[in-house]
């Protein structure tokens, strides 16, 4: 009987511990972190593969070749963008961890306000710094989203021309990369309907796959923007809670100090009366 009671108390203690641990998780920050990682992974992975597909299309169907190493061409810009993607992936992986840790500490500061934990000025400054940094990153992701929409628009035009060329017989439709600034004006790399390269490109998997990869990269950038907005709401709410908690903490300190002073005054008066009586 005693063993059953001990086992029941142990299970109850484990359950309470689990509930306490789950209650300490900052779920809004966790959701924003998952959304940020999903968006960054989708943008970086699909964007990298879409850029590789663009290189393949330019080389195989438009016969665009690399310029000498001392000049800046479309292939060099694609390589630079790939390195930027590597930096974005690593930077926001670290930043997501930092925001998650900040969410844990902020939640702990609110829940343990009347315990041993004290909210410091440094903690409030760190929260304000994260709000400003997240706002800057949100604007940066908005720019990335706008920039990612450009290749989506370009490939949508190419896909539309391919569809119209197969539907309209005898139509004179051409694809000229000079319209998008991919090659210099002096280089004529036009591919028109009716040519073998045009139909091969329209029927190839590279064009369809690259188009859909850029769409997925655009969706990933949009998800990152939503994650940044979610982070801003969470950080702003935590900042407001911490600010109010600091005021409440100061009020409690002043109140306890005044009560201690009143207690000391009463004790002193009681001793004086006792001494006068004796």
Question: What do you see in this structure?
Answer:
This protein is mostly helical and 278 residues long. It contains 6 helices and 2 strands. The protein has helices at residues 2-23, 27-60, 74-111, 121-167, 196-203, 205-277, and strands spanning 174-175, 191-192. Strands 1-2 form a two-stranded antiparallel ribbon. α4 (121-167) packs antiparallel against α6 (205-277). The chain starts with a helix and ends with a helix. The model is unreliable at 113-117 (pLDDT under 50).
List the keywords.
278 residues; rod-shaped; 2 strands; mainly alpha; two-stranded antiparallel sheet
Topology diagram in text:
Elements: H1 2-23, H2 27-60, H3 74-111, H4 121-167, E1 174-175, E2 191-192, H5 196-203, H6 205-277
Antiparallel strand pairs: 1-2
Helix pairs in contact: 2-3, 2-6, 3-6, 4-6
Low-pLDDT stretches: 113-117
Q: Which geometry do the CA atoms define?
A: rod-shaped
Give a count of the beta strands, DSSP E runs of length 2 or more.
Answer: 2
> What class would the helix/strand composition place it in?
mainly alpha
* Termini separation: 62 Å
Q: Nearest-angstrom radius of gyration? A: 32 Å
Q: H/E order of the elements?
A: HHHHEEHH
| Main sheet overview | 2 strands, antiparallel
Helix content: over 70%
Give the overall pLDDT as a whole number: 79
Beta-strand portion reads: under 5%
Total number of helices? 6
- Order of neighbouring strands in the sheet with most strands: 1-2
What oligomeric state best describes the polypeptide chains here? Answer: single chain
């Amino acid at each position: 009987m005693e063993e059953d009671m001990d086992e029941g108390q142990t299970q109850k203690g484990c359950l309470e511990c689990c509930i306490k641990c789950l209650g300490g998780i900052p779920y809004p920050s966790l959701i924003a972190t998952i959304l940020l990682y999903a968006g960054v992974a989708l943008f970086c992975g699909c964007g990298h593969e879409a850029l590789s597909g663009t290189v393949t299309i330019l080389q195989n169907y438009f016969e665009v070749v690399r310029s000498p190493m001392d000049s800046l061409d479309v292939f060099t810009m694609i390589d630079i963008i790939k390195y930027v993607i590597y930096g974005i992936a690593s930077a926001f992986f670290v930043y997501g961890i930092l925001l998650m840790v900040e969410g844990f500490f902020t939640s702990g500061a609110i829940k343990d306000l009347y315990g041993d934990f004290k909210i410091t000025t440094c903690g409030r400054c760190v929260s304000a710094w994260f709000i400003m940094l997240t706002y800057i990153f949100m604007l940066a992701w908005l720019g990335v989203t706008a920039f990612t929409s450009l290749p989506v628009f370009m490939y949508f035009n190419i896909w539309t021309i391919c569809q119209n060329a197969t539907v309209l017989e005898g139509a004179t439709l051409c694809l000229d990369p000079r319209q998008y600034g991919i090659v210099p004006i002096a280089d004529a790399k036009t591919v028109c309907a009716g040519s073998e390269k045009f139909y091969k490109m329209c029927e190839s998997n590279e064009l369809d796959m690259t188009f859909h990869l850029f769409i997925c990269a655009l969706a990933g950038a949009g998800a990152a923007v939503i994650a940044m907005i979610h982070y801003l709401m969470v950080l702003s709410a935590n900042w407001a809670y911490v600010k109010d908690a600091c005021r409440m903490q100061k009020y409690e300190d002043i109140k306890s100090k005044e009560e201690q002073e009143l207690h000391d005054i009463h004790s002193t008066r009681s001793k004086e009366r006792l001494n006068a009586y004796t």
